[in-house]
Design brief:
heterodimer; A: alpha+beta; Arc Repressor Mutant, subunit A; two-stranded antiparallel sheet; 44% helix; globular; B: alpha+beta; Umud Fragment, subunit A; 8 strands; 31% strand
Chain lengths: 89, 152
Amino acid sequence: MKIKEGFVLRKIGDKDVVIGEGLDQINFNKIIALNSSAANLWRALAIKDFSEEDAIDFLENYYQIDHQIAEKDAKAILEKWKSVGLISD
Amino acid sequence: MERVVISNAVLLGEAKRLLKEGKKVTLKVKGNSMLPFLHGDKDSVELTSTENYEVGDIVLAEVTEDHYVLHRILSIGGNEPEATVILMGDGNIKGIEKCKQKDLIGKVDYIFKKDRQINPNTEKERKKAQQWQRLRPIRRWILAIYKRLYRI
């Protein structure tokens, strides 16, 4: 899967948010807040095609957590992203 | 997904930065001070930066530090940074804002309504706004009826 083109992670105030941006256009109506682990995952994955496994591996290594917990968290985050149309298969 | 609230000062501060970079910024209108042309929490506007502002433009202005309004230019003393600008909300009965040309951050080039988009800078739209200006003495009553009709 892949993060759809046009979504950019920015910091607004102290919050990590994803904003829908065209070439020269920024739409503040399409703004999605990410918690810190989701934001880190985004930073790690935004540049390339990735699989659910990549996301699980990243969380497991980055936060030094159990595989099962990483799997649960990664699945939850990706599910959310999918539901709001941030990623495509 | 949870709704996250970002304060106006922070969000519009970011909008200001992006407009300065030459980007266009779309955001939802808050409040009803621009009725009947803009409905708060329903309509969105696209802002663009410009160096030439004129009377009748709907602009985002930082009237005092971190305090922003999206109102219409009532008068402007030129396009030099220190020129005085008077703003007023179309939906306000009284009360103006005074700032300088350099405090103007961007101008509305499109209004997005539920089912259509409007360019407020066409002759037709500007005329509508001028006619509305002339009704200022009786705005209070028109707005009261309007708000009741639209349940605002």
